[in-house]
Amino acid sequence: MVSQRASQTSLSCPADDVAEPVLSIVIPAMNESSTIVRFVKWCKEGLARAGVVGEILIVDSSIDNTAELALAHGARVLKVPKRGLGQAYKDAIPHIRGAWVIMGDADCTYDFRELQQFINGFKDGYEFVMGSRWKGSIEHGAMPAHHQYFGTPVTTWILNRLFKSDFSDIHCGMRGITLSALKRIRLSSSSWEYASEMVLKSVHYGLRTLEVPVHFYKDQEGRLSHHKRSGWFSPFAAAWINLRAMFIYGADFFLIKPGYVLGSIGTTGVLMLSFGSVTIGGITFSLYWMLLFCFVGLLGTQLVLLGWLSRSIYDVKGALRKKICDVLDYNRTTLLSVLLVLLGFSLGTPFTISYLSGDLSGLTASDTESRLAVTSLYCVSSGFLLFAVMLLVNAIVARFNEIETDRFEHDAR
Prior knowledge:
Blueprint: H1 2-7, E1 10-12, E2 23-29, H2 36-50, E3 54-60, H3 66-72, E4 76-79, H4 85-92, E5 100-103, H5 116-123, E6 128-138, H6 145-163, E7 175-178, H7 179-185, H8 194-204, E8 209-216, H9 226-230, H10 234-249, H11 256-273, E9 278-280, E10 283-285, H12 287-314, H13 319-327, H14 330-357, H15 367-412
Parallel strand pairs: 2-3, 2-5, 3-4, 6-8
Antiparallel strand pairs: 1-4, 5-7, 6-7, 9-10
Helix pairs in contact: 6-10, 8-10, 11-12, 12-15, 13-15, 14-15
């Protein structure tokens, strides 16, 4: 697949190509002939102001003369098939020569004459330097009102809640990242959601992150943004796939905390009602309530275990997986699971005997036996769930260890 994609790309270099760039400005472009010359000039001005040797790499999938204009004015041009914005960045990685990378759009909505603050961030050791229009400025008319006052603030708030981060503008298109970090986070998204994936992985990988103010300008007269070219629904589709990326990479947020709450309520209710009804505040909690608590408790237990399972998958550094494996130690967890199952069977024995004594035609169990049967079901189900998740976590860890071993041997060769 990699070789096939490589055969579909071609790199062209300008006559005045720089030899050893420190910074690479990497820009996907599609049919930007109206702005590309101005944009390349802005980039060169920004590099000159910052006193940095840099290259401009245009990742082009245009059907107009964007590539020819960019090349003629001093940019490198990587021709690629149209496969999505995220894929364009992935296609560019083998051709990036600078240790620092700044990304953005070729439509002159972001001011690439102002690169100094990004470069200062890299010099100070930051690996991910995120632009923020909210800390900078937004020209009147540059952003639709529902984007500016609803879409971007809301999705940014959601991401910050999910990942305990503190970004002010997760959708800002102008951002910088070190080449080593860009390779390390291994972007998988091919479309608009690459932006959220990059932000999320900066948190997962613990990248040292800085936000800097940027200025956002409206489209020049006569130019239509890609969203407008694609139709009125395009911004909403982009928002949806960005939210999808957040929810997938932040799955544990929707599992662990709600799971703890439900599990605590369910377990407390089951234990409280195991030997009889309880009246609190005029409400009598009977056997039917106990069945509800059993359901809630099992759901909570499953959510917690699945949440830790998802954390083990997205633990890029491996430290959390090791911690989870220590907690879910095979021998200890198997013993606990067996004990829970045995406890469940023993608590359910009186109910089973009563049922069998009725020739399987009706229940003769007492109220206490029925309640203990519910507790029995809860213990047996929890034991099996715990054992199953322990096996899955250990299987995931074993697979990750195999991958790391293969990568180490590949790098050694």
